[in-house]
Specification:
Elements: H1 6-11, E1 37-39, E2 44-51, E3 54-61, H2 67-70, H3 72-75, E4 84-90, E5 92-97, E6 102-106, E7 110-113, E8 117-121, E9 127-131
Antiparallel strand pairs: 1-2, 2-3, 3-9, 4-7, 4-9, 5-6, 5-8
Length: 141
Protein backbone atom coordinates (compact mmCIF):
# COMPACT_ATOMS: atom_id res chain seq x y z
CA UNK A 1 0.00 0.00 0.00
CA UNK A 2 1.46 3.39 -0.96
CA UNK A 3 2.23 5.92 1.75
CA UNK A 4 -0.10 8.90 1.65
CA UNK A 5 1.19 12.13 3.18
CA UNK A 6 -0.81 13.41 6.14
CA UNK A 7 -1.51 16.68 4.30
CA UNK A 8 -3.26 14.75 1.53
CA UNK A 9 -5.30 12.72 3.98
CA UNK A 10 -6.58 15.89 5.65
CA UNK A 11 -8.08 17.31 2.48
CA UNK A 12 -9.26 13.95 1.17
CA UNK A 13 -7.03 13.98 -1.91
CA UNK A 14 -4.16 11.74 -2.95
CA UNK A 15 -1.09 13.47 -4.32
CA UNK A 16 0.20 11.03 -6.92
CA UNK A 17 3.62 12.74 -6.95
CA UNK A 18 4.22 11.38 -3.45
CA UNK A 19 3.16 7.79 -4.08
CA UNK A 20 5.59 4.93 -4.47
CA UNK A 21 6.02 3.85 -8.11
CA UNK A 22 4.11 0.81 -9.35
CA UNK A 23 6.32 -2.23 -9.71
CA UNK A 24 5.73 -5.50 -11.51
CA UNK A 25 7.19 -8.67 -10.01
CA UNK A 26 6.15 -11.28 -12.56
CA UNK A 27 7.24 -11.52 -16.21
CA UNK A 28 4.04 -12.53 -17.99
CA UNK A 29 2.30 -12.43 -21.38
CA UNK A 30 -1.27 -13.23 -22.40
CA UNK A 31 -3.15 -12.92 -25.65
CA UNK A 32 -6.49 -11.20 -26.14
CA UNK A 33 -7.18 -14.00 -28.64
CA UNK A 34 -7.63 -16.29 -25.59
CA UNK A 35 -8.92 -13.85 -22.94
CA UNK A 36 -9.71 -14.63 -19.32
CA UNK A 37 -13.24 -13.24 -19.77
CA UNK A 38 -15.46 -12.07 -22.62
CA UNK A 39 -18.45 -9.72 -22.25
CA UNK A 40 -20.81 -9.27 -25.21
CA UNK A 41 -23.61 -6.75 -24.77
CA UNK A 42 -25.33 -5.55 -27.94
CA UNK A 43 -22.80 -4.53 -30.66
CA UNK A 44 -19.99 -4.91 -28.09
CA UNK A 45 -17.19 -7.37 -27.41
CA UNK A 46 -14.94 -6.83 -24.39
CA UNK A 47 -11.99 -9.24 -24.11
CA UNK A 48 -10.46 -9.14 -20.63
CA UNK A 49 -6.92 -10.24 -19.84
CA UNK A 50 -5.73 -10.29 -16.22
CA UNK A 51 -2.07 -9.92 -15.44
CA UNK A 52 -0.43 -9.54 -12.03
CA UNK A 53 -2.42 -6.71 -10.44
CA UNK A 54 -3.67 -5.32 -13.78
CA UNK A 55 -6.69 -5.83 -16.02
CA UNK A 56 -6.44 -4.91 -19.70
CA UNK A 57 -9.40 -4.93 -22.02
CA UNK A 58 -9.70 -4.99 -25.78
CA UNK A 59 -13.00 -3.28 -26.65
CA UNK A 60 -14.59 -3.84 -30.02
CA UNK A 61 -17.69 -1.79 -30.76
CA UNK A 62 -19.61 -2.33 -34.00
CA UNK A 63 -21.00 0.43 -36.25
CA UNK A 64 -24.22 1.69 -34.69
CA UNK A 65 -22.88 1.11 -31.16
CA UNK A 66 -23.89 3.76 -28.65
CA UNK A 67 -23.21 3.54 -24.90
CA UNK A 68 -26.71 4.76 -24.01
CA UNK A 69 -28.30 2.02 -26.15
CA UNK A 70 -25.89 -0.91 -25.73
CA UNK A 71 -24.29 -0.58 -22.27
CA UNK A 72 -26.79 1.50 -20.27
CA UNK A 73 -29.28 -1.43 -20.18
CA UNK A 74 -26.52 -3.58 -18.64
CA UNK A 75 -25.15 -1.17 -16.00
CA UNK A 76 -28.35 0.81 -15.24
CA UNK A 77 -26.82 4.30 -14.96
CA UNK A 78 -27.90 7.40 -16.89
CA UNK A 79 -24.40 7.91 -18.30
CA UNK A 80 -21.12 6.01 -18.12
CA UNK A 81 -19.68 6.46 -14.63
CA UNK A 82 -16.26 4.94 -15.32
CA UNK A 83 -12.97 6.72 -15.92
CA UNK A 84 -11.20 5.48 -19.04
CA UNK A 85 -7.55 5.46 -20.07
CA UNK A 86 -6.78 3.77 -23.34
CA UNK A 87 -5.46 3.62 -26.86
CA UNK A 88 -7.64 3.60 -29.98
CA UNK A 89 -6.35 0.89 -32.33
CA UNK A 90 -8.81 1.61 -35.13
CA UNK A 91 -12.11 3.25 -35.93
CA UNK A 92 -13.69 6.44 -34.61
CA UNK A 93 -15.52 7.03 -31.34
CA UNK A 94 -17.23 10.27 -30.36
CA UNK A 95 -17.63 11.00 -26.64
CA UNK A 96 -20.01 13.61 -25.22
CA UNK A 97 -19.65 14.58 -21.57
CA UNK A 98 -22.75 15.31 -19.49
CA UNK A 99 -21.81 19.02 -19.64
CA UNK A 100 -21.99 18.93 -23.48
CA UNK A 101 -18.24 18.88 -24.13
CA UNK A 102 -17.58 16.56 -27.07
CA UNK A 103 -14.45 15.05 -28.64
CA UNK A 104 -13.79 12.45 -31.31
CA UNK A 105 -11.18 9.74 -30.77
CA UNK A 106 -9.59 8.18 -33.85
CA UNK A 107 -7.39 5.15 -34.39
CA UNK A 108 -3.81 5.88 -33.30
CA UNK A 109 -4.82 8.22 -30.46
CA UNK A 110 -4.50 7.70 -26.71
CA UNK A 111 -7.28 9.02 -24.50
CA UNK A 112 -8.56 9.76 -21.03
CA UNK A 113 -12.29 10.11 -20.39
CA UNK A 114 -13.71 11.09 -16.98
CA UNK A 115 -17.00 9.72 -15.63
CA UNK A 116 -20.28 11.18 -16.87
CA UNK A 117 -20.48 10.61 -20.62
CA UNK A 118 -22.18 8.93 -23.55
CA UNK A 119 -20.25 7.68 -26.61
CA UNK A 120 -20.94 6.27 -30.05
CA UNK A 121 -19.13 4.73 -32.99
CA UNK A 122 -18.84 6.99 -36.04
CA UNK A 123 -18.90 5.59 -39.57
CA UNK A 124 -18.88 2.03 -40.87
CA UNK A 125 -15.69 0.73 -39.21
CA UNK A 126 -15.55 -1.04 -35.83
CA UNK A 127 -13.95 0.95 -33.02
CA UNK A 128 -11.22 -1.11 -31.35
CA UNK A 129 -9.61 0.22 -28.20
CA UNK A 130 -7.27 -1.06 -25.52
CA UNK A 131 -8.39 0.03 -22.04
CA UNK A 132 -5.96 0.02 -19.15
CA UNK A 133 -8.05 1.63 -16.40
CA UNK A 134 -11.71 0.66 -16.59
CA UNK A 135 -11.60 -2.73 -18.31
CA UNK A 136 -12.38 -4.66 -15.15
CA UNK A 137 -15.78 -2.92 -14.83
CA UNK A 138 -16.77 -1.93 -18.38
CA UNK A 139 -20.05 -3.56 -19.52
CA UNK A 140 -20.10 -5.73 -16.41
CA UNK A 141 -23.47 -6.85 -15.09
Amino acid sequence: MPKIPASCKKVGKINLNHMDPVTVKKFETKSHETPDEIRQPDKTKVEIVRLEGFTIGRLNMKPGWRWSQCIKPVVHTDSCQLSHVGYAVSGTLTVRMNDGTQKTIKGGESYTIPPGHDAWVEGSEDFVGIEVLSADQFAKT
